[in-house]
Amino acid sequence: MDPRLFPWLSLLCCLSVFGHEPPGARADSAPSAAQTLVWGPGLETDIVLPARYFYIQAVDNSGTNLTKSPGEKTFEVKIVSPVEQFTRIWIQVLDRQDGSFLARYRMYATYSDLHIHVLLRNKHVANSPFILKGTVHHDGCDCPQPSGSVWEAHMHCPQSFPQIDRDLSLFPSVDPDRIAHEIPQRFGQRQSLCHYTVKDNKVYVKTFGEHVGFRIFMDAILLSLTRKVKLPDMEFFVNLGDWPLEKRKPTEKIHPIFSWCGSNNTRDIVMPTYDLTESVLETMGRVSLDMMSVQANTGPPWSDKNATAFWRGRDSRQERLDLVKLSRAHPNIIDAAFTNFFFFKHDESLYGPLVKHVSFFDFFKYKYQINIDGTVAAYRLPYLLAGDSVVLKQDSAYYEHFYNELRPWEHYIPIRADLGDLLEKIQWARDHDEEAKKIALAGQQFARNHLMGDNIFCYYYKLFQKYAKLQITEPTVRNGMELVEQPTDDLFPCSCQRTRAKDEL
Ligand SMILES: *[C@@H]1O[C@H](CO)[C@@H](O)[C@H](O)[C@H]1NC(C)=O
Ligand SMILES: *[C@@H]1O[C@H](CO)[C@@H](O)[C@H](O)[C@H]1NC(C)=O
Ligand SMILES: *[C@@H]1O[C@H](CO)[C@@H](O)[C@H](O)[C@H]1NC(C)=O
Fold first, then answer.
1. Domains and CATH numbers, the chain
2. I want to staple 408 with a disulfide (CB 3.0 to 4.6 A). Which of 199, 334, 340, 414 is the partner?
3. Cβ(65) to ligand 1 under 6 A?
4. 406 C-alpha vs ligand 3 centroid, how far in Å?
5. Is 242 in the active site?
């Protein structure tokens, strides 16, 4: 080939050698400091979260959003306080691989004024530095906003949550005096329950039943909330078991019971699961899998993901056994295996050998994620949705607080409760790759918009606020209740300006 006829050929060659561009990226798709977008709750003083966070969307000179990562270390975030020499703040910038980044930080002390610098090659990005004026509280600071409506406005909470309205619509009123007697009588012997009273923003509890270890999750969210906002006085019961309890028909005398999982056949009031709640409270703390970390670990891009459907888990339900059998019959379509046998007798000839635990982030090497109930709803669904694989969700009577807002074929691909159409649905996804990818991204968007820490705090608050309004007698600290104390191991206790000002009035 005569290069004089194709001068651009040699140019192309040199661009690819010297341009340092990842394959597929165009030369003009470098982020611009001026055009790049930065937004999110972590840029606001009054949105107190265990881990605060904000987003960075890389935008090039022409104003076009980047859709691929410009490199993990593209943006640098620094947080300083002009009046302190050191800030005890742990920062991470997570690359979401789609041209956007999630910057998160956990504060170990409270500061007055914070300056957040977002830098691109030492140049300020967008309106950086972002200034958080006034007292910026850390999560451990016991400094409740006295007005719930002011707090909700600061948090940008939605006016209502459809699931809360549905659940509470069955209870025209709640009589604390009555439930304080009747619920322990009805369930206290055989179930594990917590009876909570919140009075003057202090939390009191009495437990019923033997297995009450899971109360730590409920204690933790209540204490975290009462540090941030004054809760209404209220009295309520939390079911610490897996299964929802209130099986009476709505026309009978039903009792309000708060549970982590709801079902079509019960009338419990659902809350975000203890798993999701814990992951919010312990983001950048005790947990490694949370709604933010998962966004930075979604594996290869869609086109490079393995088109075998994937599942790992334990044997907590018959359909899980059926799924593994199906996988053994169709290994080119489904890779499903047990990591643990606990509920059923393990027959290796039927279910194969146990396989090693797979890191959750490695699930996203696969395009198709199968979500099947365990003892109740599978609490992994929020994290599966947050990835960029498409979820095939088993129809189920069990639900978490957000399932009823998900739409089949929009956010996930539905499969029958008995898995009878699973092979067919996987084939559909393989034959309709663009549609499947679109569903994957819609599910991801749902998770990003509805299942982050601020959404979870709003949900709990709204639930308590609406429930409290239904009470027709005075919530009371009952005999046998103990105070649930705020942790005292905080290294850097804060002085709460707000409470002090109020006390001095
Ligand atoms: C670019 O990204 C921002 C932030 O996600 C979004 O609001 C905007 O609609 C995007 N622009 C285009 C043209 O897609
Ligand atoms: C896809 O995954 C299956 C099951 O895990 C595996 O057997 C197969 O080799 C993988 N395919 C590719 C191309 O990696
Ligand atoms: C449970 O109720 C939902 C919503 O009404 C419905 O879509 C679903 O099919 C029901 N599932 C089962 C197994 O009852």
1. 37-139 (2.60.40.10), 162-280+454-493 (no CATH), 293-451 (3.40.50.2000)
2. 414
3. yes
4. 12
5. yes
